[in-house]
Amino acid sequence: MTPLDVARVGRSRHQNDMNQIFSRARFLFHRPVLAALAICGIATITVAADKTVARPDLSEKDAGRVVKVTRPADDFSKAEPFERMSAGAATSTKYVNRDAFSHPLANLSFAEERDFKIGNALFRKLWVSSPSSTKASDGLGPLFNARSCQRCHLKDGRGHPPEGPEDSAVSMFLRLSVPPETDAEFAALRDKLLLRITEPTYGGQLQDLAVTGLKAEGRMRIAYEEIPVALSGGETASLRKPSYRVEELAYGPMHPKVRLSPRVASPMIGLGLIEQIHENDILARADPDDRDGDGISGRPSMVRDAITSEIVLGRFGWKASNPTIELQSAEAFVNDIGISNPRMTNASGDCTERQADCRAMRDGVQANLGATEAPDPVLPLVTFYSRNVAVPARRDVDDPAVLAGKRAFHEAGCASCHQPKFVTRRDAPQEAHRFQLIWPYTDLLLHDMGEGLADGSPVGDASGREWRTPPLWGIGLTKTVSGHTYFLHDGRARTLLEAILWHGGEAKASRDAVVEMSPEARAALLKFLESL
Ligand code: HEC
Ligand code: HEC
Question: How far is the first Cα of the chain from the last one, in angstroms, to the nearest whole number?
Answer without folding.
Answer: 35
